[in-house]
Write a structure and sequence with these properties.
Largest sheet: 6 strands, mixed
CATH class: Alpha Beta
Low-confidence stretches: none
Strand order of the largest sheet: 2-1-6-5-4-3
Oligomer: single chain
CATH architecture: Roll
Helix content: 25-40%
Length: 143
Amino acid sequence: MQKSGAEMTERPTVYQVPADEQDVRELEQLVAQIEIGFNRKDAAVLDGRFTADAVLVVPDGTVLHGWDDLFTYHTARLAGPIKDWTTRVNVLAVLPLRPDIAVVHLRQDTSTPQETFSNRGTIVAVKKDNSWWISAMHNTNVA
């Protein structure tokens, strides 16, 4: 009889810690581009390091598939409802799965003319041709 997940006593570990210092610096720079693009209202910079087939879940739960959809979404948002907002994005942790794949946890603190709020996010980053790219990202509001 096969044991259920709750009964398993040995579970695999998947994260390769500690993270390589150079990779951490490069991933922090990747995340910094999100902040720079947001604050400049420049979707090309904001979305510049997303893969062509990236998947993004935005705070309201909308799922965007592919760079074209992501760029169209951010172009409209940055010129419209969030044009007066600013944000600060900080990497909380880099957890490598393999030398070319890492999970990045982040915090985003955003100010609007009316309020300040925080989001938490998770990025799946992949290294292709010695450059890090965002293949998936989830961003959710913190209550």
